[in-house]
Amino acid sequence: MTDELLEFLIEREMKQTGRPELLPNPLPMYDRDNSRLPDRIRVSFEDGSTAVYELRTDLPHPVIIENVKIIRKWKQGYVNQPERRRRKK
Predict the structure, then answer these.
(1) How far does Cα 38 stand from its chain's mean position?
(2) Regarding predicted confidence, which is higher, 14 or 34?
(3) 8 has pLDDT over 70
(4) How far is Cα 48 from Cα 26, in angstroms, rounded to an integer?
(5) How far apart are CA 9 and CA 17, in angstroms?
(6) Nearest Cα to 42, choosing from 56, 23, 58?
(7) Residue 15: its pLDDT value, please?
(8) d(CA 78, CA 80)
(9) Confidence of residue 1 (pLDDT cuts 50, 70, 90)
(10) Could you tell me which residues come within 8 angstroms of residue 50 by beta carbon, excluding any fewer than 6 positions away?
């Protein structure tokens, strides 16, 4: 598909659904200094409305975190250590 045809189809789709077009240059917002990707993006639309999109990271369920803590308490190292043999004099 050519770029012109693609732009035409996108424009026609936006007009049919009544969705406003995006304005250029969304505003990236970083929560931490060491963030590689923006944590939030603020996007403005041609009808004057704005929307903020947040990057969501999936975290493990709290029960799994609690189980990991319990298992770490059990860990003592290698349990089946052979007894040290002492040389008889």
Answers:
(1) 10
(2) 34
(3) yes
(4) 14
(5) 12
(6) 23
(7) 75
(8) 6
(9) low
(10) 42, 43, 44
